[in-house]
Amino acid sequence: MRRSFKIKEKYVIVIVTIVLLITIILTAGKRYNITFIEKGLGYIVMPVQKTFSSVGEWISDQIYFIKNIKELEKQNTELAKKVDELSYENKILQQYKDENTRLRKLLELDKKYPDYPKIGAEIIGKDPGNWYNVFLIDKGSNDGLEVDMVVLSGNGLVGHIIEVAPNYSKVLSIIDDRNAVSSKVLRTGDLGIVKGDLTLLNEGLCKMEYVDAEADIIVGDEIVTSNLSDIYPPGIMIGVVKEIETESHGLTKYALIEPVVDFRHLEEVLVINMKWNKKDDATKE
Amino acid sequence: MRRILAITVILLLTNILQGTYFQGLEIRGIVPNFYIIIIVSFALLRGSKEGAIVGFFAGLLQDIYYGTSIGFYALLGVYIGYFSGKLNKSFYRESFFLPLILTIVSSFFYDMAIYIFTYLIRGRIQISYYFYNIILPGMVYTGVFSLFVYQGIYYINEKLEIREKKYRNFFK
Question: Looking at the whole model, is its pTM more than 0.80?
Fold first, then answer.
């Protein structure tokens, strides 16, 4: 009896292995349509997860507040001063902007750098393992998000959406080992590809590869997304060059980039509520 | 029934916490893996079958929320649960030594499998870097937490078993 059960058990493991291998192969790569099971789980788990993460944020905010109350006061007076300065500057800039739009209209350059429609989202979960940098945000297809939409933080590129459920989406960040972004040096327009690299993650860096050996690139150069990318609109800030090395084969260089986004303390992000590649097609027509 | 409910709650809670608060335990980019601890604990306390089932669902949750293909983590979970469960008969439940060792060994296999199947095949060949900076710290860190979590699971399991015994007697 016992023996026959043992054999059965082994068969079960083999069958489970085969079935799972098949599902791995079938679902590998991009999963655009999530299954009903995932949807169901999303409805159950996400509200709880959202509460958890917001409570956690609240607590850490309180701790931070108590820790830094003196400093905050100082900062506050400083910031108040700065607000005055900036609002003055802002008024001048507003005038420039009006002037700019007027002149742009004259030159019909209007479409080149449109204001992308954005919506805010909160990060509610991070990849549990130590290998990858995927995170979840609290907006999904109910809010009009789609796969391949671009995610920003205040000052730079965060990543893009790889999977959308009704009430949450999965974002692959640019520092994930699997991600690659076509990019260029803002100053000179030299092209390269920014890749995430786990070996550089602890120092908070990523790598810009395939830069031409004769490219004009120096430490401190700003790196932005290039106009070759399918997903990313051009001109989004990625980071600043920290170090430049020549590859061992001598044909290309690579640069270490310090992203402008602080991935460790990321809590809120902006999603460009529009698909870049789609829009590109629309303008071509 | 109660057991299923308890395990479901534990797994969902682990899944939520692992993605949120446990990320705060991070040291140099390494977070302890509580899924492994839970799977190993249940497998040791209850045997291969339950271990494999818990492993499957723990992995599936991870696949759904953070994975890029369904089944990879689930498969790892099944193996960890199944093989850990083989030692179910051969240890004293009160001892913390075997759960600790097994968690460390499982953590090694888990991360090694992730390295081989998702990093090595993309041409990342600096295995020693990954071993010393990710796999080894992960093993140690997860091991440390297994000491505490195993006690918790042990306690919950004990309660469940007492109840199950009562239930059985009641109907017999």
Answer: no
Cβ–Cβ < 8 Å for A212, A254: no
Tell me the pLDDT tens digit for each residue of A214-270. 888 888 888 888 888 788 888 888 889 988 888 878 788 888 999 888 887 788 888
- pLDDT for the residue B77: 92
Q: Alpha-carbon distance A93 to A136, whole Å?
A: 36
- What is the pLDDT at residue B104? 93
B12 vs A125: CB contact, 8 Å cut-off?
A: no
Using a CB-CB distance cutoff of 8 angstroms, which residues of chain A are in contact with residue B66? 125, 127-129, 132, 134, 136, 170
Query: Which one of A13, A28, A134 has the shortest CB-CB distance to B69?
Result: A28
DSSP 8-state code for residue A184: E
What does the alpha-carbon distance between residue A193 and residue A252 come to, in Å, rounded to a whole number? 12
Does B68 contact A28 at a Cβ distance shorter than 8 Å? yes
Model confidence over B62-106: pLDDT tens digits? Answer: 888 887 778 888 999 999 999 888 888 877 777 778 889 999 999
Domains identified in chain B and CATH numbers: 2-171 (1.10.1760)
Instruction: Please report residues of A whose CB lies closer than 8 A to that of B19.
Output: 49, 124-128, 136
Orientation angle between helical segments A36-67 and B2-19, nearest 10 degrees: 50
User: In chain A, which segments carry CATH 2.40.10.350?
Assistant: 116-276
**Taking CB atoms and an 8 Å cutoff, what residues of chain A touch B35?**
128
Q: Considering CB atoms only, which of A22, A49, A131 is closest to B16? A: A49
Cα gap B157→B146, rounded to integer Å: 16
> Which residue in the block uniquely carries the two structure tokens 């249940």?
B42
- The topology (CATH level 3) of A116-276 is Thrombin, subunit H (2.40.10)
Chain B neighbors of A28, CB-CB under 8 A: 68-69
Q: What is the pLDDT of residues B121-133, one digit of tens each?
A: 877 788 888 888 8
Assign B107 a pLDDT band (cuts: 50, 70, 90): very high
What does the DSSP 8-state code read for residue A34?
Answer: P
A109 pLDDT band, cuts 50/70/90, is: very low
Q: Among A31, A56, A127, select the one facing B66 at the smallest CB separation.
A: A127
Q: Look up the ipTM and state it.
A: 0.75
